[in-house]
Each structure stands twice: as C-alpha cells, then as structure tokens.
Amino acid sequence: MDRELHAMLDELQRDPYPHYARARAAEGLTYVPELDSWLVVRDADVREVLRRPEDFSSANALRSDVMPAPAALAVLAGGFGGRPVVVTADGALHQALRAPIVRGLSPARVGAVLPYAAERAAALLDRFEKDGRVELMAAYAGKLPGDVIGRLVGFDPADVPALVQGGHRLEELLFRPLTEAEQIAAAEDVVAMSHCVDAFVRARRADPQEDLVTDLITSVAGPGDAELTLDQRHELVTHLQNLFIAGHLTTTALIGTTVLHLLRHPRQWELLCARPDRIPAAIEEAARYDTALQGFRRVTTRAVTLAGTELPAGSPVLLAFGGANRDGSRHPDPDDFDITRTAARHLSFGLGVHACPGSTLAREQLRITLELLTRRMPGLRLADDQRIVMRPTLIHRSPETLDLVW
C-alpha cells in the first residue's frame, strides 16, 4: 500500500463515523478503495450478512492492511502459528474450533476468574490513586485484560507482559506501515511470543489440567499425554495466540473508549457516580456508541445481492459494526451518547455463529472498572492539556493515550 493511500486509510480509521453516515445515506452499498471492500453499514444489512455465513465467508476476516517485507516474513517462518483460527473459519471447521473456546469461556469459568479480576483491578488503581493524575491506557486499561485472560488460560503471570507486547506487535506488523527494520523487530517479538506459547502448550500436554488449554489440546490431539506433532503445535499456538490477543486488545479498547466518553459527558459521569445501578446500561451504551471492534471482513462465496447491490463471487465486504450501531432506524438519536436510553440490541459483539464468546468476560471487566472508578474516584475528569487521538485501526478502536486527573 503506497504512502498516500495509507494516509487516507489512517484518516478513515481514526474517525470512520462520517464515512459510515455517508454510506448509510447512499443507495445500495458503497465501495471504499482505502479498505478494498464494499462497506456494509446499515443495521439490517450487517445482520443479514451475519445470518448467512454460507454466502459470506469469514476466510478474509483478519486480512492485513500491510504485507510484511520478505525479510520480516523470513523471521516469522521461525515461529509457530499460521493456521486457521475461529474468526477465519467457516462451517464444520468453525464449529470444531469454536467449541472448546465456548467451553473455556463458560459462565462457570468466567465466574471463577472474576474475584481475581476484581483484586487485580483494585491493585492497579492502588498504584496511582494518590497521584492525582494517570495515563489510563498504559497504567490500567492495557494491563487488566491481559492479566485476566492470562489467568483464565493459565499462563505464568511472568510471561503475560511479553505476550501482551507480542499481541500489539503482531497488530502493528499486519496493520501499520513500518520500515523494514521495524518490521523485522516486530516479527522477532511475535516469534518470541509464539515460542513462549508453544512451550506452555507442550508443558500442559505433559501435565493436563481442568482448563481451557487442556480442552483445546484434546480437541486437536485427542486425550492423553502423547507428544504433540509439529503440525498440532502450530495449530494450538495459533488458537491460543488468537484467543489471548482477542481477549486483551478488545477489552483494553473498550475500557478506554468507555471512560473517554463518560468523561466527555460530565453529567452522565456524575449520574453514574450517583446511580451505580446504571453501570450495566452505561456499558451497553459505550459499546454501541464507539464500538471497540469496528468491523470484520467477509468475502462472498457466490453471486449475491445485498442492499440492492449485485456482488459477484469473491467480492470483499467489510461489516461495519460501528456503522450499524449508529443506524437511526434501530437506535434513535444514534450520535448522542446517552446512558439513560432504552437500549436496543447492538452489534458490538457480533451475532449468530460468530458472536463473540468472550463478551461476558469483557463486560464483567468493564463493570468492575466502572464500579471501582465511580466509588473511589468520583472526581475523575479528562486532563485539559491533551489532544485525544484515536488509534488508526478498525480492529481495536481506542484512544492512543488517555490522561485523567482528579
């Protein structure tokens, strides 16, 4: 992708909502060259695509915006991964990959990790509560979700920071323009992450537990402690990296955008402090208003017609959950942030066979966060001396930094 086109993509990703509004107002679908996709932004159209996985394949769901240089690809070849994951699989393969993840994120297992999540959240707040100022993304939002998903999966806490870093570096490598030297450095971090996960998988195979990882291993290699084949190791590393990255990056983004918009609307923040029973409604409104996962790609498996637009087989489309969540036909006054609104079901966590299995865990971490902040730091406000800049990505939309004072 050339520099000019990438600059246009950056502009679109940092504030996609005007583009969504124009696409909703247009007849049929809108093709967006920067995304190399047909943009699907109306609530009804996004739902239709999600309900027709046989016609709209997920094979390109995580297609990169940038192709790494050959030197970076050579480094990546020394790691583990590169196999299909649940978000890029269809049909029977998708069901097989999804089943152990759904079991691993069952209400019982999520409930079991919540006391740790509450304890960890409080400990993070303890570190800066007396300071009167904090950059929330680095000090809190970027730490809690990785710790929690790491605990649920069973990773050694000492490994979690490097795994979180590896997830960020993989996103940079696939979605940001980097120099060749920067790409190689990012690839080295990704390979280090994959080797760490591989060592964890082999250790768990030798010593099975009642946990998500053992379920995943059994689904791939069957029961027992027989040594994993190289191909099985690649497959398991791919699954776990995808699960871990999705489990921390999206929730980190959701915490950041939720706090940002509550504090941009001080009266709603004050209402939430006075009425903490409204926290669940605030979570849903924040997820709708500025969706952390703005969209996923799909590709047509046959010739179809969507919103009056004829799409040949192989046509790329981008399902803009963030655009659908601002559709006034479902959400009155959609551009208003209002935690008192009568909520209609949004699409922030998907729908149908690809609905996010980790949505409960994400919501619970946000609930814990808002309960702590409203109780312990009701005077919280945005620092005056900052310019809020959103990260240029549709995968994990959030502020790059968020300076708060109290």
Structural notes for this entry:
The chain is an alpha+beta fold. The chain has one domain (3-405): Orthogonal Bundle (Cytochrome p450), CATH 1.10.630.10. Helices cover 54% and strands 8% of the residues. The protein contains 16 helices and 10 strands. β1 (30-32) and β2 form a beta hairpin.
The whole-angstrom Rg is 21 Å
Q: Main sheet: which strands, in order across?
A: 1-2-8-5-3
Q: What percentage of the residues does DSSP assign to strands (E)?
A: 5-15%
Q: Report the principal-axis shape.
A: globular
CATH class type: Mainly Alpha
Termini separation (Å)? Answer: 43 Å
Unreliable segments (pLDDT under 50, ≥5 consecutive)? none
Query: Helical segment tally?
Result: 16
Q: Please identify the structural class as seen in this structure.
A: alpha+beta
Mean pLDDT: 93
Any idea of the CATH topology? Answer: Cytochrome p450
Overall helicity: 40-55%
Number of domains: 1
**SSE pattern, N- to C-terminal:** HHEEHEHHHEHHHHHHHHEEEEHHEE
Protein name: Cytochrome P450
Keywords: Heme, Iron, Metal-binding, Monooxygenase, Oxidoreductase
Family: Belongs to the cytochrome P450 family.
Organism: Streptomyces heilongjiangensis
How would you summarize the topology of this molecule?
Layout: H1 3-14, H2 17-25, E1 30-32, E2 37-40, H3 43-50, E3 56-57, H4 70-76, H5 91-104, H6 107-128, E4 133-135, H7 136-141, H8 144-153, H9 160-175, H10 180-206, H11 212-221, H12 230-264, H13 266-274, H14 279-289, E5 295-300, E6 304-306, E7 309-311, E8 316-320, H15 321-324, H16 359-376, E9 381-382, E10 403-405
Parallel strand pairs: 2-8
Antiparallel strand pairs: 1-2, 3-5, 4-10, 5-8, 6-7, 9-10
Protein name: Cytochrome P450
Family: Belongs to the cytochrome P450 family.
Keywords: Heme, Iron, Metal-binding, Monooxygenase, Oxidoreductase
